[in-house]
Amino acid sequence: MLQRRLDYTLLLDQVHMSMPKPLGWGTRVEGLWRKSNKNYTEAYKPFVKEFGALIAKNEITKGGPIILVQVENEYSGFGDGVEDFEYEWELLQDFKNSGITVPTVCDDAWLGGHFQSVDIYGWNSYPLGFDCSHPEVWHSAPPDYFYNLYNSRIRKHGPKSILELQAGGFDGWGGAGYDACGKLIGPEFERVFYKGMYGSAVKIMNLYMAFGGTNWGQLAEPGVYTSYDYGSIIREDRRLRDKYYELKLQTQFLAVSPAYLTATPWQLTESKQIEILKGTRGIVLTVMEDTLGLHTKFYIVRHKHFSNFDSINYRIELKTSVGTITVPKADHLLELQARDSNILLVDYQAGGTNIIYSTAELYTWKEIDGINYIILYGDPTEKHEAAFKVPGIDDFSSLNTDEDVEWTYRIDDAVLTVNFAILEDGESQTIRFGNTALLIFCREVASKTWILDTQPPAIVKGGYLIRSASIEGSKLHLKGDLTQATRLHILATESVKRVTFNGKDVSTQPATKGWLYVMYTPELPEIKLPELSKLDWKRADSLPEISSEYDDSKWVTASNTYTPNREKPAVEEVLYASDYGFHSGNILWRGHFTAGGGEEEFWAVVQGGQAFGYSIWDNGNYVGFWEGDVTTGRHRCNFKLPKAWEKGEKHIITVLQDHMGLEENWTAATEHFKAPRGILDYGFKGAKPNLIHWKLTGNLGGEKYLDIERGPLNEGGLYAERQGWHLPGFDDSDWNAGSPLEGFKEPGVEFYRTTFDLDVPAGIDYPMAIEYSNSTGAYYRSQIYVNGYQFGKYVNSIGPQKSFFIPQGILNYNGKNTLAISLWAMQDKGAHLNSLDLRILGKVEGGVGIIKNSPAPAWSKRKDAY
């Protein structure tokens, strides 16, 4: 699997930083983790040996994509308060002994100077935190390290590296939802904080996360739910957020600015900054200068209080190769808009053109047929100034412009200075002199302009996403994604006369100044989706275990009286699921007792992780439930039994608990991830019965799980899962008809199955989701299975997730699909789904290409299923 991913990385012409995480089952390993505890180090060594060998053969020096290896993650907080240098050294040696030769890195959770023995020290930065419920609220003042990224504890050699820079935010159970996180960490955040990092001379900057993901199966830890969209640059369902386009503006600029890589910041006091800004306050100025090259300078201007909603006008003194100049020279001021930053260039070499200075930002520059095209941009209504010097041109007699350019110019000592306004209507402007063409765009136009690495390059203005291009004779072949009819303006070598888009010839019309334009209407056919509420559903009981007649002889007997877990149970027997090999999904417990006579109440302390819940039965009679709460992963219940027990009676207490995943082990030298899932304590009031034994089950086979293709975290302990009812091909012909929208009228678990067909044409990308709707006051939990894969965990009373993206390949877009739903009703009145729909989230022509379905082995009778 990892090798395939690395091969894809090469195919996409990308490089890769590898971060191994042996996060398997360590709950039974004695002692502290992430420390030089021999039990721990011996447990990780086989993984590092195998993983390291695979990485070593894929290093960039051997033709692979790997450029860095991250050996630990946020090794910053320590349970015993002590950084373990012996552990660091041993871990590094293990990686190097596996054959790795590329530089090693480790991301400090903050700028704390931890694990500096790696080749490149790096740290993480999440400046706005994770309060997605108030996306419009930013901190009133930045952290100190935002402007001063090193202190006396940090090594000063090597590139400054941010190995996790905020590009979204996680959202927990009961949270605001990831659209709110995407708004909190949006384009404005990128303009303020990413440019702030450039001003701090950061040279390695890794964004977390560029592409959202899915916690399918039981992959999640308790702090998050099924979706891990993260409000990221690319949504979980592959649609682009607006901040994708802002990031594109910045990365294209960096790609053509090698001077930045060798630039270092000036040391400027606050008073000196105010002097350079001609007395303007409220602005922070950083100047990055390339002292090894042509002394290119990057003047990075940003708000002192970055949450400011007000704009600030200013002039600035620029130190250029033709003297110190206060700009703008014209009778207007520059504007630093609210929640924005500007990068002003000085002595920037754009091909054969020297940009003496520019107050408008540079997007890119490219040479096509001997013409040097320079793209500058700004926001509508802004006024800017730029000065240029071109070798061999003194009088600029060839100066010409579009008719509608709003500009003025002057020529002094062979330097052309132009003043221009960014047009409100989004129209672009062109100014030509010598072999230089200055293209002036508004931000919106620039953000939808695509720079394609053909030979020579091509520039395409417009479109949702232009992926690639190639030139064949007089044809320019474009590949990309469009969501609506779009006019594309194309600037390419003069030999290009015709254009294809996604393999189709399109009518090509000449525009002005060498541009061509095409009008392309994507084919986005309507497709018929099944109405899930109207399908033929089958239903069956999925909780026979509550019956006193149920045979649990094949279950594991919870007979351990010792646990390696530091948290010891309050009762003699160990009722921790992981101690018996069950690590995810629903867990079932059955306690067999002989009544002492007079037992009236049962109490227990149950732990399953944040937002978990549980239900309890006594000989099939409902005792009670805990619906769950986002504030706790542990709960003590005290329930009155349906009736008092009589001496000598046999009783079975059945506990169905949810398992929200194991905890993260963020703090080193701790055992947080071993926090038990199960029953920590229990007892009775009125009398004390005689315990015969406790039995438990989770997924069928436990650590020897049966479904190799879908993996160890796909199934839990529900009867339906153990029997494989969620798998395609299971014969449910003898089941009763029944829909999850009808539900049932008593506490318990029912399982529902149906099938439907899809027929989605090739060449289009229609991401789809299965969606629920909340019902007020109903306590139930539900899971979604598509072709055997668990792709949704829904908690009605907690939320927030109601829409569950199902990727193409899990969902068969051209054939039969099996959909299964588990429904766990916690209240006496039972439960039903308010709605259940399959919806298209977006329509795009192009995009994903041919998708091969994930392996989805069909049902076969499971040996020893119980």
Automatic annotation (TrEMBL):
One short Pfam family name for this protein? BetaGal_dom3
| Residues in Beta-galactosidase domain copies | 260-449
Classification via SUPFAM superfamilies? (Trans)glycosidases (SSF51445), Beta-galactosidase LacA, domain 3 (SSF117100), Galactose-binding domain-like (SSF49785), Glycosyl hydrolase domain (SSF51011)
InterPro entries, alphabetically? Betagal_dom2, Betagal_dom2_sf, BetaGal_dom3, BetaGal_dom3_sf, BetaGal_jelly_roll_dom, Galactose-bd-like_sf, GH, Gly_Hdrlase_35_cat
Report the superkingdom from the record: Eukaryota
Q: Which GO terms describe its biological process?
A: carbohydrate metabolic process
Write the Enzyme Commission number(s) for this entry.
Answer: 3.2.1.23
User: What are this entry's molecular-function GO terms?
Assistant: beta-galactosidase activity
**Which SMART domains does UniProt cross-reference here?**
BetaGal_dom2
Q: Which reaction does it catalyse?
A: Hydrolysis of terminal non-reducing beta-D-galactose residues in beta-D-galactosides
Which keywords does the record carry? Glycoprotein, Glycosidase, Hydrolase, Signal
Q: What does the similarity note say?
A: Belongs to the glycosyl hydrolase 35 family.
- Tell me the protein's name: Beta-galactosidase
Organism in which the protein naturally occurs:
Orbilia blumenaviensis
